């Protein structure tokens, strides 16, 4: 966002039965009446922001307005994915059945799309020899790697007395540690961790609080003020802090900036997430069903975003005028909507199931066996890189 993943990134009324993250990785397993339309609506609207953010990237230079919108969206859209993913992970236990679903629903898409994005990048960039690296997430796949790690650790966070302060401390320390490196996107894993842990702590009544009329009314001036601050901050602030992908040293900032910006960004992001949720409709709408397809939309739209740069779709001068910027935004929303359609979801899940079968060599392989297969695959790739 999840990518990008989130990078990246479904819900029922029974939290202990919820197995899939945002974006949803197994929505077809549940009947429509079991789903919460509020969070399905939130997932679809949030994934539109992911598409818009990627569409705006080439338009930032020379447009203060686009950059301000970009900064505002990146301040909360991936934190939102992490929060809702944590909410859906409240009932996760380290038992074979659930670990097996985590492997097939998150690990397999990670492997498939890491390879696919690498091959696509070889074709569309000046790096035709880029190696396939399952340990260095490319583009949007970082969110799947993060989600896999977060969900595996979710039982541990339920045992900790003060989980959110501890997660914030971990994120703050990560900004002081440039030596963490890029393996599995650990900087993002650790810096986005507090949002996931916050989601683990949420209950349905917390979502009802932001859906009250008073919250909806208050959200309007808050978002307008945030947009004004973003517009003012474009000239001097490094919005890469909202990417949570680098340490303070890598952002050419004093070390103490890292912990301070972690806390400041967390407060800002949580407020904006609440404002966003306040305006999400709670009833079923025409786009509610699309909320089940956010994983497919998240992973597939990256190819479109990369192709747009490769084929110079941003070169015409009119694209960088207001009418062009609006057109780009609408096209991005339309493409994402199409990629979240039920028909695309069905094809996507069939392809993922097809990818699982050769890996597990049969439907009855245990979760432990599947882990061993994936481990051997990682070792083989690592040897090739060496």
Automatic annotation (TrEMBL):
Signal peptide: none
Record's keyword terms, sorted: Acyltransferase, Membrane, Transferase, Transmembrane, Transmembrane helix
InterPro entries in UniProt: Acyl_transf_3_dom, Nod_factor_acetyltransferase
Stretches that traverse the bilayer: 68-88, 100-120, 132-150, 162-180, 186-202, 214-236, 256-279, 286-306, 326-344
Pfam families: Acyl_transf_3 (PF01757)
Molecular function via GO: acyltransferase activity, transferring groups other than amino-acyl groups
Polar residues: compositionally biased ranges: 13-22
Protein name, per record: Acyltransferase family protein
Organism: Streptomyces muensis
